[in-house]
Specification:
This protein has 5 helices and 5 strands. By secondary structure, it is of the alpha/beta class.
Length: about 140
């Protein structure tokens, strides 16, 4: 990572899904790649995520889903981020069906990392886009 300051990334687990190993691994990988990472923990509401993003002044909000609620909770989170004036880029990862990717992109999601995406591809995306999301 080479922005003027490290990217600040919020990794969040919206919804009732209780599995966060993947989110924690991604948080560690991004931290090792030079990002400042804030992990919100399990069972976050879209309002919780938006509030944390604003409070932490993050550049990127990463939403992790395994439970199939990615469309509704992503839409709600983006709406609340916009309402709060937060300009963070939103990325989504986890069990995301390929057919849902275009709809997520239409919501404003900048990148989707379905299960099985290599860690090096995720870090490469952050490296390639750090200039576009950092102040």
């Amino acid at each position: 990572m080479s922005p003027q300051r490290p990217l600040r990334v919020l990794v969040a687990k919206p919804g009732l899904d209780g599995h966060d190993k993947g989110a924690k691994v991604i948080a560690a990988i991004l931290r090792d790649a030079g990002c400042e990472v804030i992990y919100t923990g399990l069972h976050q509401t879209p309002a919780d995520v938006a509030r944390a993003a604003v409070q932490e002044d993050v550049d990127v909000v990463g939403l992790s889903f395994l439970s199939g609620v990615h469309m509704a909770l992503t839409a709600a989170t983006i709406e609340l981020l916009h309402a709060a004036g937060c300009r963070a880029v939103v990325v989504v990862g986890g069990n995301i069906p390929t057919q849902d990717i275009p709809a997520l992109e239409q919501l404003g999601v900048r990148a989707v990392f379905p299960g099985g995406t290599s860690y090096s591809d995720i870090v490469a995306w952050f490296d390639d886009h750090s200039h576009a999301v950092a102040p």
